[in-house]
Specification:
23 strands; single chain; alpha+beta; elongated; 5-stranded parallel β-sheet
Length: about 650
C-alpha cells in the first residue's frame, strides 16, 4: 500500500502588538536631550537620544527610527550635514526629520528644508508644539506608507486579474479547439505548453489513464514536452508523437502514486520521496515535481505531471490552475466517450459555469460584450454591490451602470466607448454619483479576447472601486501643500503658484503685485504668553486675511509669522496700496485669544513683476525688502519697493 504524501503546513501568522513609535533625538546639549526625552516618553514614544551627529547617523543606519528630532548647531557635524547624509541612504531616506534650533532667520529655515527636513521647532521647546509636530508627521508618514501598501495591493490584484484572464483565455482556447474538432496532438500540445508557461515548469506531460484487455492500467501520453536531452531521449520524444505514443506501463513511481491517491502529489525533494525510483539514463535531475490527477466527476481520467519549477510547487498553484485542469479533464472525457454533439453541449454549459465561478470570485465587476460593444454577453453579480444594479437589467440595457457617471467625466467615457468599438480596448477612471450625492471613483478597463487564430472575437472588461486610493492621494497632496496650523497654502505651494504666474506674465507681458507681511512684535507675544497663544494669533490673522483676498489671489503662510499674497489682477500701485491699507486695518487690533488679549499690527511690503524681480526668488526678495522698509518707517505700515 502506498504511503500518503507528508503534509508541509506553515505555521499561521500570529497577531502581534504594534510596537511603540521610535523617535531619535539628536542634540549635543544634555539638558535638551533630557527635556525632549521626558516629553516624548510621557506621550508613550520610544526615545533614542544621540549626543552627536556621527553617532546619530550610525544608529539610524543600523536601526532606522520612525522620526528624528535634529539639532542644527553641533560640534562634530551640524544638523544640515546629518540630514543630507541620511537622505542619501535608501534605508533612512523616508524618515521625517524635524529640525530644532534657537535660530530664527528665514535663511536657516530654508536651508533646513533644503537639506530634507519636513518641519522646524524653535527653542525653547513647548511640550504641546513638540508633540503636535511629531504626531502630525508620523501621521503623514503613516498615510504615505498606507498609500504604498494600497498601491502594492492594487498591483497584486491587477497581476492576479491578468493571470485569471490568461487562464480564462486558455480555457476559451481549449474549448474553441475542441468544438472545432482539432486533432488531439494539437489540442493537448497547446494545452501543455500553456500550463508549462503558467507554472514556469521546465518540462511535463499530460497522460490519459487507460486499461488494457488484461485489466492492467497504464498511462498513455497525450502531450509531452521536449525531453530531447540526448540521442536516446530524442528517439523517445519522436515516438511520443507517433500513432502509438509514449506509454508508461509501470506506474510504481511518482506518477502512479498521484493516480493511486487521487490527489496532487507535490514534492520539492523528489529524490527523497518514498515513491521515487530511478530515472532513464541521461534524464535531467528532478528538483521539484507535481503530479495532478485529472478527474471528471468520480472517474479518474489521467494526469498532468510537471517538473523543475523554480521555487518548487505549492497547493496554491494547483488551486489557481484548477479551472484549467478541470477543463482539461472535461475535454478528455468528451474525447473518450466519442459523443461529440451531446458532449459538446454539456461541456459548453459546464465551461460557462466555470467562467461564471471565476468571475464571481473576484472583487472586480467582470463583463463581456460583442466586438462593437453593443450587446453584453455576460455581467458578473458584482455589478449589484458596485453600482446597485441587477445583472439581468444590465444585460437588457447595455452599459446601464454608466448612467450615473458624473457630468464632468462623461466626455472621457464617451471617447473610451468609441475606442472600445474601434480598437477593442480602453482604460479609464471616472466618477459616479450615488443616490445620496456622494462620489465614487471607478476604474474600468476593456481588453480584446482572441480566438486560436489570433482574431478578436469578443471584448471583456473589469471595473472596480478605487475611491479609497483616490481619497488617500488627495489627503496626502493636501497635507503636502497646506500649512498644518492655519490651513493656508504652505511655502512650497506658494512658490509653485508664483512660478506659474511669472511664466504666464512673461508670455502676456502683464504686471502683477506681490505682498509680503509679518506681524510686529510676534516674538514678544510668544515670549510673554507662550507658543499656544502665538498659534491662536496666527490662526486668527489667517482667518482675517482669508476674508480680504479675492478668489484670484493666492494667500500663504511662509513660516513663523510671515505671510504672502499673490495678486495677479492688481497691476497698479494704487490697487496694491489699497489692498495693503485693508490688510493693515484688519490686523491693527486687539485680539481676544481665549483668556488673553493681545495687541497686534503688521508691516507690508509690495513688489511688482517685472519691475522688482524677473523671477519668483527676486520678486519675493524685493517684497521682503519693502516690508522691512515699512517696518523701519514711521509714517506708514506698508511700502512699495522702489525701482533700482
Amino acid at each position: 500500500m502506498s504511503r500518503p504524501l507528508e503534509a508541509h503546513i506553515a505555521e499561521p501568522d500570529r497577531p502581534s502588538v504594534p510596537p511603540l513609535r521610535t523617535v531619535m533625538v539628536v542634540d549635543d546639549t544634555p539638558a535638551n536631550l533630557n527635556l525632549l526625552n521626558y516629553i516624548l516618553n510621557q506621550a508613550h514614544y520610544e526615545v533614542r537620544t544621540m549626543p552627536s551627529g556621527r553617532l546619530a547617523i550610525a544608529s539610524a543606519l543600523d536601526d532606522p527610527p520612525d522620526l528624528i528630532l535634529l539639532d542644527i548647531r553641533m560640534p562634530d557635524i551640524d544638523g544640515y550635514e546629518v540630514c543630507a547624509r541620511l537622505k542619501a541612504e535608501p534605508a533612512t531616506l523616508h524618515i521625517p526629520v524635524i529640525f530644532i534650533s534657537a535660530l530664527q532667520e528665514v535663511d536657516d529655515k530654508l536651508r533646513a528644508f533644503s537639506a530634507g527636513g519636513v518641519d522646524y521647532i524653535t527653542k525653547p521647546f513647548q511640550q504641546a508644539e513638540v508633540l503636535a509636530r511629531v504626531d502630525t508627521h508620523l501621521r503623514i508618514l503613516d498615510a504615505q506608507q498606507q498609500l504604498e501598501r494600497e498601491v502594492a495591493l492594487r498591483a497584486r490584484a491587477e497581476h492576479h486579474a491578468a493571470r485569471q484572464h490568461r487562464i480564462l483565455a486558455a480555457i476559451d482556447h481549449l474549448r474553441t479547439q475542441y468544438i472545432g474538432e482539432a486533432d488531439e496532438e494539437t489540442l493537448f500540445d497547446a494545452l501543455l505548453q500553456e500550463i508549462l508557461d503558467l507554472t514556469d515548469s521546465a518540462f511535463g506531460l499530460i497522460g490519459e489513464l487507460r486499461t488494457n484487455p488484461d485489466g492492467q492500467r497504464y498511462l498513455q501520453t497525450l502531450a509531452l514536452s521536449n525531453i530531447a536531452w540526448d540521442d536516446a531521449s530524442r528517439h523517445l520524444y519522436a515516438e511520443s508523437h507517433s500513432r502509438e505514443g509514449l506509454v508508461f506501463y509501470n506506474l510504481d513511481n511518482l506518477l502512479g502514486r498521484a493516480l493511486c491517491e487521487r490527489r496532487p502529489l507535490l514534492t520539492n525533494t523528489p529524490a527523497e520521496h518514498p515513491a521515487a525510483h530511478g530515472l532513464p539514463p541521461g534524464h535531467p535531475p528532478l528538483h521539484a515535481f507535481a503530479g495532478i490527477p485529472l478527474q471528471f466527476g468520480d472517474e479518474l481520467l489521467g494526469l498532468v505531471a510537471l517538473a523543475n519549477r523554480p521555487g518548487g510547487y505549492r497547493q496554491e498553484l494547483v488551486d489557481e490552475l484548477r479551472p484549467l485542469l478541470d477543463a482539461n479533464a472535461q475535454v478528455l472525457n468528451g474525447l473518450r466517450e466519442r459523443q461529440a454533439r451531446r458532449a459538446a453541449e454539456r461541456r459548453l454549459s459546464e465551461r460557462e459555469e466555470l467562467l461564471s465561478e471565476l468571475t464571481e470570485n473576484i472583487h472586480q465587476l467582470f463583463w463581456m460584450s460583442d466586438l462593437q460593444g453593443e450587446q453584453l454577453l455576460y455581467v458578473s453579480p458584482v455589478v449589484q454591490g458596485l453600482f446597485g444594479l441587477a445583472p439581468e437589467a444590465c444585460l437588457a440595457h447595455p452599459w446601464l451602470w454608466h448612467q450615473g457617471v458624473a457630468a464632468e467625466d462623461r466626455p472621457a467615457l464617451d471617447r473610451a466607448l468609441d475606442a472600445l468599438r474601434s480598437q477593442g480596448h480602453f482604460d479609464l477612471e471616472y466618477r459616479i454619483v450615488l443616490p445620496d450625492g456622494a462620489l465614487r471613483w471607478i476604474r474600468e478597463r476593456a481588453f480584446p479576447v482572441r480566438n486560436e487564430h489570433g482574431r478578436v472575437q469578443r471584448v471583456a472588461g473589469l471595473a472596480e472601486d478605487v475611491s479609497v486610493l483616490h481619497h488617500a492621494q488627495e489627503r496626502i497632496w493636501y497635507q503636502a501643500t497646506h500649512d498644518t496650523l492655519t490651513d493656508l497654502h504652505n511655502r512650497k505651494q506658494f512658490h509653485d503658484h508664483l512660478q506659474t504666474q511669472v511664466a504666464k506674465a512673461r508670455r502676456s507681458g502683464e504686471r502683477f503685485a506681490l505682498c509680503y507681511l509679518d506681524l510686529d512684535g510676534f516674538k514678544q507675544v510668544n515670549d510673554t504668553h507662550g507658543h499656544a497663544v502665538g498659534d491662536l494669533l496666527l490662526v486668527e490673522v489667517a482667518r482675517r486675511l482669508r476674508a480680504l483676498v479675492r478668489e484670484s489671489d493666492t494667500l500663504a503662510r511662509l513660516g513663523g509669522d510671515e505671510f504672502a499674497i499673490l495678486m495677479p489682477t492688481v497691476t497698479t500701485p494704487q490697487g496694491a496700496l489699497g489692498a495693503a491699507e485693508r490688510i493693515v486695518a484688519a490686523l491693527i487690533d486687539t485680539f481676544t485669544l481665549g483668556e488673553v488679549e493681545v495687541a497686534s499690527a503688521c508691516s507690508v511690503g509690495i513688489a511688482f513683476f517685472p519691475e522688482h524681480g524677473a523671477d519668483e526668488e527676486a520678486l519675493l526678495r524685493s517684497a521682503d525688502q519693502a516690508m522691512y522698509r515699512a517696518k523701519r518707517g514711521a509714517d506708514t505700515a506698508f511700502c512699495i519697493q522702489p525701482l533700482g
